[in-house]
Input
Amino acid sequence: MQVQGRGRRRQLMRQQQQQEQQHRKSINWQRFKRSVSRARHVEALVVADTTMMAFHQDGDVETYLLTIMNMVSALYLDPTIGNFINVVVVRIILMEEDEAEQGLNITVNADKTLYNFCKWQQKLNPSDDSHPNHHDVAILVTREDICSRANTPCSTLGVAHVAGMCQPDRSCSVNEDNGITLAHTITHELGHNFGMYHDTEKIGCSKRDGDKLHVMTPTFEADTVGVAWSRCSRRDITNFLDQGKGECLEDEPADNDYAYPDLPPGTMYNAEHQCRLQFAVREASVCSPLEEICSKLWCIVDGVCTTMLHPAAPGTHCGKHMWCQNQECVPIVDRPSQIDGSWGEWSEWSECSRSCGAGVSILERKCNHPEPANGGKFCIGKRRRYKICNTQTCPDGAPSFRSVQCSDYNDKQYKGKNYTWRPYFDQTEPCELYCTDTEESVIVPWGEAALDGTPCNVGTRDMCIAGICKKVGCDWIVDSNATEDQCGICHGDGTHCVTIRGLYDKNEGLGYREVIVIPEGSRNIKIEEVGNSKNYIGIGRRDADEYFLNGKRQITLAGEYQVADTPALYERDRDKEKVRIPGPIKEDIAVYLIHRGHYRNFGLRYEYTVPKKDAYRAPEYSWMYSDWSMCTVTCGGGTQISHSLCHESKSGVVEEKFCNGLTKPDFTTRECNTKPCPARWWVGPWQTCPISCGDGALRKRSVMCVSASTREDQIELALPDQECDKNSRPEEVESCPELPICEATSSEIPLIVYADEKNSAFYNISPYEREAGGVGSTTMDGLGSTEIEPEILEFDNVVDVDNTGESSLYNANPKWQVSKWSHCLAGKRTRKVSCSGTREPRTCNMDSKPLEVEVCRTGKWATDKWSSCNATCSIKSGYKHRNVTCYDRQNNLPSTDCNHIKKPLEVRRCHHKKSCAEERLGCKDSINPSWICSAYRRMCDSSSIVREKCCTTCLKRRKHVRHNRRQSIVD
Output
């Protein structure tokens, strides 16, 4: 396993970039959205701690790390990954002094070590991407026997943030050195950074393909011949990159990166050395017969011949003129030459994904003519094109495309029950297929993603393509900027309709109070509460015999619904409701305020547009500023932005082409939330209970006082506990949730297990699974369900039912008693259920026995606005930040139960648009396109308008003329 030398790699990169540029020139892609294969360069920082330095004190640690990273690089060049991923080492740090003295605390607790290392490497990383020491990912290698969620050693080998790549505080991993197989651990953890989950039947991929083990397998098996990437891993990393989450990987590495060794690892570290690395001992020898050493390495340790079930490394000597390759002993021959991949032929256009309502057709090709081999490069260029098809409207009354997809699961049982499914729409994950039953008691994510052509943004033509919400213009072209005006006319000027606005602020009466009747044909209907309240919005037919939303005192979940045969989006954010209906609606609708009496109505604002009936009016266009964006931070000093929009005096916002581009004002900013950030308590996740059954066990979590993030660094610093409010300090210890009664079992043999957690993915290995015949397990975040109770509306005081009242032990009327629900743990919560009237539970009605275990509610992601870019005119590349918070779907309270693979970006690359000359001169050219100023630069002295609109060009010309005059005098 080895990679070409530095010069050869750079030559390949230049060839690939030239190929991509040639593709851009040779094909007109205006009508198609491309899925493009680009060269991605992962610039890695590798850190070896003091335990590594102590163990390898007699060897060259840097060469060892480069040998390992060479193997990692080769695995990411394997064609089964479906992308060009070039892993290069740009910096190695060997910690020969105590880590604590350098601000890094490394312990056996994998979670704390990951947290500490991620913060440490972020402060170390230069923000300028062009800096030679800037890294995209940080890899810590340690000889500590780390363990996830515990302070004592165990079989954990690695830990990493899922989908953390290119996020400065999450693009990192911790890896335990156990010999040459460290390369597989690092590769696996990098896979998690790229958004990959473990290969299990649950996500549609097995852990192996024949005798090849998949890299993201949850279990290690000894009879493996080579490794490869699964279809699921290929899908996950491609989606991650296509969503723009790998922006930091698009720059080419600097010239001063480290060169990988040219020899296979087994030639540099013989079998005896590999034994010492695997068993972490000073003295070890080989007891494998030469003919078996390539498939399984046996070592004599403390006088016993034993094995970790790992094969010897490629290149290990196995006989005269023989070495190990792919777990076979083969003759030593010249290294096979590289075979670069080349694109095959384009396929035919696929069948349209929908028969009406706008679907997607795909044209694709594969990198298989030939497929890259022996370290050859993957194809660069477009692999897919998309076009929109069957745009005709579906028949009236036809179910939505999401409804059709959910109804396909009606014949499948869920937890032993049959349900009739309808769609549940989550704006934070618009291309996930969530379905709920008709009673809204459970929410289930079915399938991998919504099908191509599924609408993903109410009020637009945007649709899901390959699991990503893609922008579609009103001209049915993907990524087009063509938009409809308020009147529903593509490229319209907004003069053919009129907007009706109003406010209902009455506080009289209970129940359904009619606000307004909106006529058939209306568009752009917006109904929203002015402030937070416990009241609700209802919508029904004009004659009130049927409701579309929140009718008959039954409150529905927020989501997407059909109102008068057109999609509507119902939103609820912290007791503030909003309804959007793009329209046009096919019949009159009545809007209601559902008033709950003792709750105040702060006002219900509504607006809609109707076709204009009066004579033609000349439109009046002008530039206006938008509302201020959300503050980039909640404290410590942030920024708000207001952009200029083209506005028609009666119709509102229209396309920019209708306003005078010469007079368009720049965006404006202002400071906000300037108060200092207070210290706060940070809590880590609860550790796993030390026992799996029985009573009386305790579990712990970390609690730290930290400073809140500021706009400048987004870093939280640990503070002394006295800096935080001691009265609000969270508990560090609690009783474990109720566990099952212990049963006598045979002694268990440790299994090889990898287990994903909420915020991190753990890669655990134990060497005994093959002998035990056990099966590994995996826990996947975000693939569970949410069970909820339907909300019944009461107009008077709500009466609480007491389920825990006192009762005699021998009550004549036995009934079920329930305790409070436990905290949500691993997607479930529990409570005690007992029969109050007798010692015998069966005396109570078993048919009415309450649930003892239920699935917890899943969370949803909410995002603030992006901060301003921290790049400058001299450092063009920088970052902008935003807050991403997890909330409960039903009650909108803060939650920790969100799917981290779907977490929106918190940090995004950005670029400074002004040149230093513009900033220094204090003005800029305000005419678009920019070549106009260059063409009129000779009129700078004679025209005040040119001097004003072409300020930078004129000032530069003036300095250039003065310079030329001085030069002529010198000459």
